[in-house]
Amino acid sequence: MPTFLTLGMPRPDGHRPLLDGLLVTAHADDVALTDGLDAATASDTLAVLVHAGPGFVASAADGAGVLRVLAATVAALRGDDVRVAWTAPDAARVAAVPDPAAHALREVLLAIVVPAVPGVEQATVELAALGVS
To answer: Assuming Cys at both sites, which of 60, 90, 98, 126 could form a disulfide with 35, CB separation 3.0 to 4.6 Å?
Structure first.
């Protein structure tokens, strides 16, 4: 059974971390984006997902996959090159997301599902090593 990864990015006091509190129950049918897609498919999928509906749930195999999903979603919202963000995600850019962009991201990216192994803890450790917490 998958577990859900919620992430937070450091913000000054009073600011809500990027993905804080977004733990949701999702079934396999609810996952709209997986980190195993090729860059073109991910880009096309995100072009629709970030501008339609009540938000989406993504899945990732590990911390690197979570970073890929975050970087590409940020790029899609900003109008940046999603394919580049998908193939070469920039942890520093994700960690530096300003509050308005973090709010927009939280509205469209509801949760990231990670498998029980390696699990939320390991993915969190991997992301922290990249400066995303």
So the answer is: 60
CA atoms within a 13 Å half-sphere pointing along the CA-CB vector of 131: 9
Of 87, 106, 84, the C-alpha closest to 9 is: 106
Cβ proximity of 76 and 47 under 8 Å: yes
Neighbours of 64 (CB within 10 A): 16
From the list 58, 98, 59, 57, the residue with the least C-alpha distance to 78 is 98
pTM: 0.79
pLDDT tens-digit profile of 59-116? 888 889 999 999 999 999 989 999 999 999 999 999 888 888 888 888 899 888 888 7
- Indicate the angle between helix axes 99-108 and 63-78, nearest 10 degrees: 110
The three-state secondary structure class of 128 is helix
